[in-house]
């Protein structure tokens, strides 16, 4: 008997340890969220990860394994700065994970590690923010709500966003300590460096603003303003200097990109529709990707990720507000300011739906609704602060006891009505149609099948969330809260957040990320490729994602049950060198998908005054103008995906090969490296020897004809430098190509990419790091 008693006591002691509870909670999060990773050999699939991020990581990893750190990417858009595209997170540690492991494994573990990082960060940030005896329990609640939030879950579909957003709690944590010690300022600068390197600069801005706001609130009536300002100015200088290696090359690339010339309408894309605020209560009301459902304001646009708070959290906020109004509690200044900040953030996120025009303010941003990351973060801190206040004053327990039985009865009654609605849905739908004078049958959108799916999803959401609310209240109502009941409450919060966000994620077999050889293999350094599946409807990734997340009966989607298991069409798109899966294979394409599209290159292909943001306009092979451009850019191979029968004449082109659903055509093209003079233009050099990697091109040729110049059909960039036979020569901008003066006879030409701002940033960051470490060591020596 003593043995069992001692065993129970020892278990209780172990469960009471904070680190044990941390591990248990995150283990549950990991198990639920990534069950397909561990037990079904699946990986996340959707959006930018597959279209852009993973191919980019694999391109960098491919060259790292060859001992080359790629600063330039020659494989898309005629060549683009790679180190300057911060979205590709070239300098971020996850690049090494992709260099060491298979793509699917690297993607999965990168996501898991960042969820653990942000879970710990939010725990420590909330614990420091609360500073009370109960801070551990409420910090765990905050960590759960943040790690499983809609914002974090949505960001998983883009590596750069999860890599950056994961650092936000750490920026806040060290931001709360900025006025305390010099070491905290250094740590703040370090986490800002990592967040910037993660690949999404907007998150850095909102994280710092959030940290400053919370630091101000924490120091209300305690800190001298000039002392506070001096500390933050020093922190800002350290942060800017330490992260110079990231932002200096990025700034140069950004200023030359179409992001800087986007229209007012483009800058307002991503505004939160007011109706989507219902996602605060029911996140799958208008769209549910896993079920292929989309309607309402989401129908003709990309749905916005709002935020979701568990119903017990909303209950707590209502109880707190009523307690303040009834003067059972005093007004807490911190909660009041956080509430106002959240309101202003939501107001700003509405963007184009506001009575005022914010397009000028949002010109360089990625959409107004991105501010919701800060709103979500602040709302969680507001919630745990309010929960702590009403629990400390015994308000919550008394209210729960009063409403629990009534709420339970209401939920049981509501459940009965919901089940009746679903079981007899056809009858009720016909009845509603009759009462409304055939409004439903005459509607362009409403059908019995669609409305049944919508109703089922909404009803299931209501039933699950209301049931979990009732169970949560039962845990709160226990007379004596112990470690077990609290752990159960935490586990219920994990389950509720998981249920309300998991349908945002889609999983596919690991094989979709394997690096396969393309359908047709041709080693030809003198030629580029054009792929059909990036220029026409239903054969690019955007069309595939649309077909994947809006399926029948909501659209005529070609994605069926078989495709959801095998993803064969997706794999075929990749085999067809669909941008950007050509990059890890080192196939050179004239088009592609990027974050920072060069203005000059976009202008070449532009069909209208409105510049593209991520990719060039559609290339039209029936256009003499586009054919001329393709010839000059050395585009010799045209790979056509014949899966969809789209009208286009191939008669002007020579068919080289045909396999299954693919055809390979040859286009009339000049060589990538060619002579240029006034008499004999575009004649290929003879006996050309070449060595090439992303940063360097070395050519050897005999200029027997005495041509004056050599054309290199790669995009001109002022950071490229050239030498001919050891002598430095200028690279001229010839219609966005490179033109180089050469000599008669044998020429040894070397082109090297030297991004000056990257090297300057390196020097500034290293110097700042060295000086900071020196100051810390000196302070430590003085203190001892």
Could you explain how this protein is built, in words?
- This protein is an alpha+beta fold.
- Helix content is 51%, strand content 11%.
- It is built from 29 helices and 19 strands.
- The strands form six sheets. The chain has a five-stranded antiparallel beta sheet, with no helix packed on it. A four-stranded mixed beta sheet has the order 7-8-10-9. Strands 11-14-18-17 form a four-stranded antiparallel beta sheet, with no helix packed on it.
- The radius of gyration is 29 Å and the shape is globular.
- The mean pLDDT is 87.
Gyration radius over CA: 29 Å
From the N-terminal CA to the C-terminal CA, the straight-line distance is 54 Å
Unreliable stretches covering 5 or more consecutive residues: none
Q: Number of DSSP strands?
A: 19
Helix share of residues? 40-55%
Overall morphology: globular
| Mean pLDDT value | 87
Which secondary structure elements does this structure contain, and how are they paired or packed?
Blueprint: H1 2-15, H2 18-33, H3 35-39, E1 42-44, H4 47-65, E2 72-73, E3 80-81, H5 94-100, H6 103-130, H7 135-147, H8 150-155, H9 159-165, H10 168-175, H11 182-198, H12 201-218, H13 225-242, H14 244-255, H15 264-267, E4 287-288, E5 293-294, H16 311-325, H17 333-349, H18 372-392, H19 395-423, H20 425-435, H21 439-442, H22 448-476, H23 483-499, E6 507-509, E7 528-531, H24 541-549, H25 561-566, H26 568-575, H27 599-605, H28 624-632, E8 635-641, E9 654-659, E10 662-666, E11 673-676, E12 689-693, E13 696-703, E14 709-712, E15 720-724, E16 727-729, E17 731-734, E18 737-741, E19 745-753, H29 756-783
Parallel strand pairs: 7-8
Antiparallel strand pairs: 1-6, 2-3, 4-5, 8-10, 9-10, 11-14, 12-13, 13-19, 14-18, 15-16, 15-19, 17-18
Helix pairs in contact: 2-7, 2-23, 4-5, 5-6, 6-7, 6-9, 6-10, 7-18, 7-23, 9-11, 10-11, 10-12, 11-12, 11-13, 12-18, 14-29, 16-18, 17-18, 19-22, 22-23
């Amino acid at each position: 008997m003593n043995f069992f008693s001692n065993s129970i006591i020892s278990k209780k002691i172990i469960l009471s340890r904070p680190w044990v509870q941390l591990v248990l909670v995150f283990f549950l999060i990991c198990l639920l969220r990534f069950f397909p990773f561990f037990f079904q050999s699946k990986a996340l699939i959707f959006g930018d990860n597959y279209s852009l991020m993973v191919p980019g990581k694999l391109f960098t990893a491919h060259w790292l394994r060859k001992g080359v750190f790629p600063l330039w990417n020659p494989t898309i858009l005629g060549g683009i700065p790679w180190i300057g595209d911060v979205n590709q997170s070239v300098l971020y540690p996850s690049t090494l994970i992709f260099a060491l492991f298979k793509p699917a494994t690297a993607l999965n573990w990168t996501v898991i590690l960042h969820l653990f990082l942000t879970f710990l960060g939010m725990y420590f940030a909330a614990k420091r923010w609360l500073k009370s005896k109960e801070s551990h329990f409420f910090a765990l609640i905050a960590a759960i709500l943040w790690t499983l939030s809609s914002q974090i879950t949505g960001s998983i579909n883009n590596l750069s966003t999860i890599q950056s957003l994961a650092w936000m709690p750490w920026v806040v944590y060290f931001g709360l300590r900025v006025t305390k010690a010099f070491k905290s300022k250094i740590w703040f600068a370090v986490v800002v460096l990592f967040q910037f390197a993660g690949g999404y600069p907007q998150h850095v801005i909102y994280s710092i603003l959030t940290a400053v706001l919370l630091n101000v609130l924490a120091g209300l009536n305690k800190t001298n303003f000039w002392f506070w300002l001096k500390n933050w100015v020093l922190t800002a200088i350290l942060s800017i200097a330490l992260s110079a290696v990231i932002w200096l090359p990025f700034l140069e690339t950004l200023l030359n990109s179409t992001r800087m010339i986007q229209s007012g309408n483009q800058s307002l894309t991503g505004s939160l529709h007011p109706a989507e605020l219902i996602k605060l209560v029911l996140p799958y009301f208008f769209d549910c990707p896993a079920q292929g459902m989309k309607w309402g304001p989401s129908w003709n646009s990309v749905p916005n990720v709002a935020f979701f708070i568990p119903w017990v959290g909303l209950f707590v906020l209502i109880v707190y507000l009523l307690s303040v109004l009834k003067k059972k509690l005093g007004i807490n200044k911190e909660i009041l300011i956080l509430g106002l900040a959240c309101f202003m953030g939501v107001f700003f996120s509405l963007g184009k739906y506001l009575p005022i025009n914010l397009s000028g303010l949002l010109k360089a941003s990625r959409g107004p609704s991105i501010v919701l990351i800060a709103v979500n973060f602040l709302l969680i801190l507001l919630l745990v602060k309010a929960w702590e206040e009403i629990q400390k004053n015994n308000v919550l327990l008394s209210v729960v006891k009063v409403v629990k039985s009534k709420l339970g009865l209401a939920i049981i009654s509501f459940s009965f009505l919901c089940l009746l609605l679903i079981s007899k849905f056809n009858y009720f739908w016909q009845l509603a149609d009759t009462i409304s004078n055939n409004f439903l049958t005459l509607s362009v959108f409403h059908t019995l099948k669609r409305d049944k799916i919508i109703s089922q999803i909404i009803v299931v959401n209501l039933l699950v969330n209301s049931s979990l609310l009732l169970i949560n209240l039962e845990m709160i109502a226990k007379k004596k809260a112990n470690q077990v009941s609290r752990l159960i409450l935490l586990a219920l919060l994990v389950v509720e957040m998981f249920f309300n966000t998991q349908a945002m994620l889609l999983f596919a077999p690991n094989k979709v990320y394997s690096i396969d050889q393309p359908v047709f293999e041709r080693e030809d350094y003198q030629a580029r490729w054009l792929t059909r599946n990036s220029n026409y409807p239903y054969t690019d990734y955007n069309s595939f994602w649309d077909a994947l997340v809006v399926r029948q009966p909501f659209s005529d989607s070609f994605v069926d049950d078989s495709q959801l298991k095998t993803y064969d069409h997706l794999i075929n798109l990749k085999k067809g060198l669909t941008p950007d899966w050509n990059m890890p294979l080192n196939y050179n394409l004239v088009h592609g998908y990027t974050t920072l599209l060069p203005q000059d290159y976009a202008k070449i292909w532009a069909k209208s005054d409105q510049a593209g943001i991520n990719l060039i306009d559609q290339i039209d092979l029936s256009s003499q103008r586009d054919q001329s451009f393709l010839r000059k850019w050395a585009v010799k191979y045209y790979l056509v995906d014949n899966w969809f029968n789209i009208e286009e004449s191939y008669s002007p082109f020579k068919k080289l090969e045909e396999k299954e659903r693919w055809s390979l055509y040859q286009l009339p093209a000049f060589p990538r490296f060619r002579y240029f003079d006034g008499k004999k233009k575009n004649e290929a050099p003879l006996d050309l020897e070449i060595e090439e990697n992303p940063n360097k091109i070395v050519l050897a040729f005999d200029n027997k004809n005495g041509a004056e110049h050599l054309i290199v059909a790669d995009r001109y960039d002022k950071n490229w430098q050239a030498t001919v036979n050891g002598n430095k020569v200028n690279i001229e901008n010839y219609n966005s190509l490179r033109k180089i003066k050469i000599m008669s006879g044998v020429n040894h030409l070397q082109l090297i990419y030297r991004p000056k701002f990257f090297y300057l940033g390196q020097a500034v960051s290293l110097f700042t790091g060295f000086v900071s470490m020196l100051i810390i060591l000196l302070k430590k020596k003085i203190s001892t």
